[in-house]
Amino acid sequence: MVQFKSLIYTPICTAALAAAAAPSIKLESFRDVLNLTSGFDPVKAAYWTGLPHHRRTPFAVSPDGKTGYIAYLDASGTDVHVQHIEPSSMTPKGPDVTIPGLKEAGGLVAHDHGFALLGNEAIPSSVANAPPDNTPVPAIYRYKNGKQVWKTFVAGPGVHESDGLAMSPDMNGDLVWSEEAQLYGAYFVITSYTGASKGHFGDSIEYVDDSGELQTITGATSAWGCSHNTGIAFEAADEPPFASICAEDQGAIWLNTKTQGMGNNGIKVSNENTTNGASGEPMGGMSGSYSSLARFDNSSSYIFAWVSRGSIDLTENDWMGEGYTHTLNRTNGRRVAIAMFSDKETKVSPQASSEVGAADGDSQVNWVTPTEDPDRSNAHVATFDDHYALVSWEEIESPACEFIAMGCGGTFTGTYFQLVDKDGQKVGEPVKSMDTYVAGDMVTLNDGRICWPYVNMAWSLDKGDVYSGVEGQKTASSMSFACMSLE
Hints:
Layout: H1 14-19, E1 25-40, E2 43-45, E3 52-54, E4 59-61, E5 68-73, E6 80-86, E7 91-92, E8 97-99, E9 102-111, E10 114-121, E11 137-144, E12 147-153, E13 166-167, E14 173-178, E15 183-192, E16 201-209, E17 214-215, E18 231-235, E19 243-247, E20 252-255, E21 267-271, E22 293-295, E23 302-308, E24 312-316, E25 325-328, E26 335-343, E27 346-347, E28 366-367, E29 375-383, E30 388-396, E31 412-421, E32 426-433, E33 443-444, E34 450-454, E35 476-486
Antiparallel strand pairs: 1-35, 2-3, 4-5, 5-6, 6-7, 6-8, 9-10, 10-11, 11-12, 13-15, 14-15, 15-16, 16-17, 18-19, 19-20, 20-21, 22-23, 23-26, 24-25, 26-27, 26-28, 29-30, 30-31, 31-32, 33-34, 34-35
C-alpha cells in the first residue's frame, strides 16, 4: 500500500501570486489507501454506445475540514455505502453507513456532523401512483452522527402531480447546499410516467430545507425543464435559483439559472449537434453531471467546463421555432471548452449565435484544447481560490467516433490537468498522468488542495476492455485519491 504523503500548504494571497511568476500545479496520487467495506464496480456503460465511463463516486468534505465522505454503489447493484474518511490521509475514519435499496449514488454534501446524499430507490407498488416496474425515484437522504434523520422524495407520488409524475431510472444529477440560503438544491434527469410528457426524458430542479421539507419556489423550482437532458451542471448560490446549465436534445447548451429550462430567453452557452437524444456527452453522459460548474471563492463568478465538437452551418430548428438552431459538427473528436460567468445568470463573453445561415456557430467558445485530432472526454473543473481553477479531461489520440453525437472509443492516452485563471486564460502547460483519473467530485480542501477519488486500474476507453463488471470480470475493493496543489 502506498502511504499518503502530507503536503505543507502555505496560503498565498492572490495579489502576490499574480504579481510573481506564474504559479504551477503539482499532482500527487495516493493509491489504494481506502479499503472499501463492500465491492464496487467502477465502470458504467454509456447510453447507446456501451462505451466505458467511470461510475461516479460522490465525494465531499465537511466545512470544518475534519471529515470526508465517499459514496459508492454496492457491486450487487443495490445499496449505497458511505464511508467516513480522514481528509489529511484519505484513510478510514468511521463509522460507515449503508443506505439500503438505493440503485445509484448521486450528489453528496458534507456537514460537520453528517451528510446529505442524492440517490434513487424503488417505491413499493402498494403505494398509490408508484412508478411501474419498480423504477427508482430520486430522494435526498440526511444523516447526522451516523443516523438517518429524514428522507425526502423529490419526484414520484405527490410531487408536481399536475405536471405529471416522474421517476429516475438513472441517477444522473447533482446535489448542492447553500449555507446562506439554508437550502439543498437537487438537479436531476427524470422520465415522466403520467401526464402529457409520459415516456419522455427531461429534468427537474428541486429545493429542500434543512428539516427535509420540500420547497416550491417560484422562479427556481422546475418540474420539467430541458428535454432529454443527460448533461447537468449545478452549483450553489447565495439564494435560489442556484446556478444551473443543461444540455438538451434540440441543439444547445443553456445557462438556465433564470429560466430553469431550454427557453431562448436563457443564455445559449454553446451550439451542439444533437442526434438520438444526445449531444456528445458534454458533461460526461452516463454517471456524469458532477464537477463541471464551480464557483470562485468569495465571488459571484463561476467557471464551466465541457467537451464539444464545435459548430458549423447553423440551420433553423423548424420544430422549436425562432431562436433555435440545428448545427453540424466542426470536428470528429471533441475538444475541451470553458465559459466564464460573472454571476449565476450572466455570461462574460457573447453567447452562442442563433443566426440561421451562419457558417460559424462556435466563435464565442474559449477552447482549452485547440487541436481537433484527439478526442477528449470526462471534463471537470474545480476552483483553488478566487483567482485560479483546475480543468481536467481524458484523451484518446486516435479516436474511433462511430456515433455523430455520442462518445468515442480508442486507446486511452492520458488524463490532463490544466490551470486556468479567472479570466479564462491558460496558465502554463497541462500536467499529464497515465494512471490517475477523475471518477468522483473534485473538492477543494481547507488546506487549498483540490482532491478527488478514483479506482487504481488499467483504464481503457474501448468497449468491454476494462477493469469492470461491464464484462463481468471483477470489482474494486479499494479506493484511491489524487490531489492537485497550487504552487
